[in-house]
């Protein structure tokens, strides 16, 4: 099923960019000479692997979002209806929750590095890394189960959207795999499980957002207190690290939390968003896997100066030598990341 050219091309371009930036990010972290990233190095490898898996899932299971009155529908674009179709959609959507889990770990790691660095040094490898992987998989599993058990399709849903779906896409909804929420003008069972589904999914996203702001505030407070005893170079380095984390927080809010919220509650309250809002939501989610490593590369001078562009830029080559002292300081601090 063809939605539009943007919906067709953007996930493929995102996959290609993810295939470029994540290996580059891993290479820059792994081959760093002046900067000792410590245990964050291994966490970065896990983040990159997750991003590549998310991009592959988006390429292999391309999804679109359709809206009509009190229902939103997340459907597979390039596949015929099958018994495993809804499970594959739930698996694909679970990577949305995985991005929340990844960022949760990032904040927790940064907070512990600032407040209890001995825990990171002594216990992160292998226990912390293993717990991080389990935590992200748990996040994904919960989201997938909610999708599968609360938002699975039903004949009543197909009847509800049959005519408008055919008018918009010239396709029969009977041939499409989808998960959906129908919040009114339906049987009580469907309405109840639809509301239960989006409330549970919203709780997962909301607790993550609260965690970002709470730990972010604690990190800012900790940096302010400790900056009294920090050198100017160290304080500047810590500000750069927190700036990178801030951008990493904004990215999933823009490409995951907001699109999902528009999809869920636009249909739940029949707000009447145009359908382009919904297909933009599906496209935006596919952009996180390459924006995440790109943000770190661009915002951390220790990585930016070693990027391919830096080797051809006189200004950046000069910056590399001027900031060498900062690199040495990071190594000394065991990169409190």
TrEMBL record:
Keywords for the protein's UniProt record, in alphabetical order: Membrane, Receptor, Transmembrane, Transmembrane helix
Alphabetical list of InterPro entries matching this protein: 7TM_GPCR_serpentine_rcpt_Srj
Record-annotated membrane-spanning stretches: 12-30, 42-69, 89-112, 124-146, 195-220, 241-264, 276-300
PANTHER family membership: SERPENTINE RECEPTOR, CLASS J
Identification of the protein by name: Serpentine Receptor, class J
Record gene name: srj-19
């Amino acid at each position: 099923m063809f939605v539009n050219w943007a919906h067709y091309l953007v996930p493929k371009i995102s996959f290609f960019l993810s295939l470029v930036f994540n290996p580059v990010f891993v290479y820059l972290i792994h081959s760093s000479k002046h900067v000792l990233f410590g245990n964050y190095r291994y966490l970065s490898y896990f983040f990159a692997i997750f991003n590549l898996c998310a991009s592959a899932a988006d390429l292999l299971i391309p999804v679109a979002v359709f809206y009509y009155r009190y229902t939103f529908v997340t459907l597979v674009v390039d596949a015929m209806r099958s018994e495993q179709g809804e499970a594959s959609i739930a698996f694909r959507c679970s990577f949305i929750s995985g991005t929340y889990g990844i960022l949760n770990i990032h904040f927790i790691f940064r907070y512990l590095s600032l407040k209890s660095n001995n825990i990171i040094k002594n216990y992160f490898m292998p226990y912390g890394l293993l717990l991080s992987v389990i935590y992200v998989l748990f996040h994904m599993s919960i989201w997938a189960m909610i999708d599968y058990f609360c938002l699975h399709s039903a004949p009543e849903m197909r009847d509800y959207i049959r005519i408008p779906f055919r008018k918009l896409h010239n396709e029969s909804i009977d041939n499409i795999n989808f998960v959906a929420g129908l919040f009114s003008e339906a049987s009580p069972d469907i309405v109840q499980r639809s509301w239960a589904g989006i409330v549970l999914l919203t709780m997962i996203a909301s607790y993550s957002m609260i965690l970002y702001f709470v730990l972010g505030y604690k990190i800012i407070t900790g940096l302010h207190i400790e900056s009294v005893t920090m050198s100017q170079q160290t304080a500047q380095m810590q500000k750069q690290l927190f700036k990178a984390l801030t951008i990493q927080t904004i990215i999933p809010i823009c490409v995951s939390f907001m699109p999902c919220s528009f999809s869920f509650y636009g249909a739940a309250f029949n707000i009447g968003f145009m359908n382009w809002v919904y297909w933009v939501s599906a496209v935006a989610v596919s952009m996180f896997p390459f924006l995440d490593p790109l943000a770190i590369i661009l915002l951390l001078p220790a990585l930016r100066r070693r990027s391919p562009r830096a080797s051809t830029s006189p200004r950046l080559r000069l910056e590399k030598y001027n900031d060498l002292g900062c690199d040495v300081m990071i190594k000394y601090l065991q990169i409190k990341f």
